[in-house]
């Protein structure tokens, strides 16, 4: 059985958390998604231009099967770049599922390192790191399971005592856990946006190569 949690520290109560005066991390979500929508709109406009009237008129100037194949391949390459960018950026607009288990995701390694490097700035005296602030929930769950399975009256009373202390610690650290989950939620969206930006660089390259190839063939014809 998990060892009983320490007595709650009255000096580290719920009130006066280090982030009380700061805006919620979730306030950044609309801005991140607005940037994603702007990027999607920009690549959508490029795609509309690629399949607009100009390129279709230029196709009529292509002569021969070889030139048609090159022109078609170049246009498809450019459209593939647009599709790739829109597909990757659209992932930013999908709300991620964020739980305490999400904090073990490699994408959140940077957030954990940031918090664990200076836990007092984030948790005050309530915890010494991410694992420490999360452990009270696990302890309470283990005690609850042990209490349910226990039949001895004496041990049940002892388990109830420990469970009460564990629940007090959960209540004390819950504001920090909620803040941490909010940060993790934003961090996931931020990471998805950074990944999408890298894919967009590849997409720009594909669009450029495809457009140059298409214009070269149609211009020569």
TrEMBL record:
Transmembrane intervals: 35-57, 69-89, 200-219
Q: Which domain of life is it from?
A: Bacteria
Q: Which UniProt keywords apply?
A: Membrane, Transmembrane, Transmembrane helix
**What name does the UniProt record give this protein?**
Uncharacterized protein
Species the sequence originates in: Streptomyces flavalbus
